[in-house]
Amino acid sequence: MPRLEDLDTPVATVDLDAVERNIARLQRYCDEHGFALRPHIKTHKLPVLAHKQVDAGAVGICCQKLGEAEVMAAAGLTDILIPYPIVGQSKVERLAELARTVRVSVGADSDTVAKALSATLGRAGVTVDFLVDCETGFARTGVQTPREAAELARLVDSLPGLRFAGLMTYPTTADAVARLREMREECERTGLEVGVVSGGGTPTAFRTHEFGEVTELRVGTYVYGDRACVGLGVMTLEDCALHVRATVISRPTRDRAIIDAGSKALASDAVPWTGEAGYGFIREFPEAAISALSEEHGHVDISACRRPPEIGETVTVLPNHACACVNMHDEVAVHRGGDVVGAWPVAARGRIR
Amino acid sequence: MPRLEDLDTPVATVDLDAVERNIARLQRYCDEHGFALRPHIKTHKLPVLAHKQVDAGAVGICCQKLGEAEVMAAAGLTDILIPYPIVGQSKVERLAELARTVRVSVGADSDTVAKALSATLGRAGVTVDFLVDCETGFARTGVQTPREAAELARLVDSLPGLRFAGLMTYPTTADAVARLREMREECERTGLEVGVVSGGGTPTAFRTHEFGEVTELRVGTYVYGDRACVGLGVMTLEDCALHVRATVISRPTRDRAIIDAGSKALASDAVPWTGEAGYGFIREFPEAAISALSEEHGHVDISACRRPPEIGETVTVLPNHACACVNMHDEVAVHRGGDVVGAWPVAARGRIR
Predict the structure, then answer these.
(1) Mind listing the pLDDT tens digit for each residue in A62-102?
(2) Where are the beta strands (DSSP E) in A169-309?
(3) Which of A84, A109, A133 sits opposite B296 (nearest CB)?
């Protein structure tokens, strides 16, 4: 059985033991507090891990794009939320087709989208659950006020092909939940039943019970962890399951090493809000800093390293952002305790439509 | 014949007329001034465009990774430079195999790499041209001094399986070329012939004749252009051949639109050195600013737009960095004047090893 050290680099590696611990821990937390868990597959993009999450007790999965949902449905996943506005006739027709074979729900924030979905889904004779997407501080999508939330909910409730199922927001924070509560109460005042209140985000996942309000949790990163999660103090280095193994290919100066993992292997996402600079954490050289990325080069400042890494030496990089990193890789090498037990194609990678 | 407007989004599009103009213009410049042109395929990653570049007069191509070179060799390209240290026994064996079928040259900056290459290539009975990689200000790879350059050149000259072919650097600037000249002169003082002096980079490509010294130009981005090139004033908007078409999926406020192209479609590379903020330029809404990216969402500030884009409207985004953007896409839609004439798989995408 090959060892991690034997793999050609750069290569994304997944520690299956750590993944299973992460899945079990969050599921146990959700079970204890009575939340539904709906893992977001955008982090791993792997049907086999989605199945593990559902087998552990998740109510279903969450996919950001229709193309990801199609991959997961084809792999036997049967309950999929797409919390993302589906716009354009060809996509709505694909949604109708998907809804014929699996349970699908969607989230969106406008009457434009709701009416377009309804026109096609109603004609197709299928019904899809609809969550009203509520903005609660993140400044991305979502209705802005309780009144807008209730108006859209009432519209959805009246449209063929759609069923008003509840509200969603991202990310869950104490402030966000306070705003979400007002939106739910306004919907209920108009006589609507708000079945699901869906929140999300790994950073606050284990605080969901403090906030109240949320009935279903959409979280992705918890399955792998990353440098952002460690920087925020919500996961430990030992929890982190995803790494990129890289090789030192140049040592032009005493203070600089170049590794063969650049933005095409690590992704160029910075995580300044965690207080961490740079583009990843090198497990074997904690004093080193990945100070810049070219596409194929990681520029490493090794001035603080007592023993500098040599050309040909391999290192293990914890990426800044697991989801963005995974999307760069056609496959991941899967291991238990360093024994490589498989190479899994990242089936939903690059499904941008 | 479908039009660009008919394509499902997000989708990367390539204007073939603009590509052909860009290829012809730089080739003409190089021919006029007597430089060899060796286009870098990392920008397009498409064998068909590599062939167009060679047919126009390029001496060969340049690939950053061995895996890219293998794709190009399999597609009939016959002269390939890999200006990147090839480290690790399995890679060196792949290089030996590649060198049996096509003309391959490499660049590297250490005796460690040169000796490892020589051991396997020499045994395999193949000879590969070796360029000494010289650092001239970019702080990435490369030998640091004329003395180091000459020492490595002499070593390479003595090793079986390698032939010292010349020097390379990146990027070419006036300062860089001055340092490169000292390195060349030091090599020549020791009696070595410096056949090739290879420079690179689209921003200074059309100034190469001012610098002197460079005999061969490695450039990638010129084929497509991008927002960085426009920001630096070295290409015009009309020259730009690569775009990402996207759809407005949410208009939560008067000042904000969300498009369905985020970091997974545009890449998250910032280009602050051009004086441009944000993550792309929307051709139809020049007053708009792509102020942030989530993986699947582009956050667009439309506060300055006289007519704001509506949900369902499609827009054309010029990405910040063509090479990073292309690497996110499994295929590109190819058009002439808006008529879609093909969908090309990005054959060398994701070849990180």
Answers:
(1) 999 999 999 999 999 999 999 999 999 999 999 999 999 99
(2) 196-200, 216-218, 242-253, 256-259, 281-282, 289-293, 298-301
(3) A84
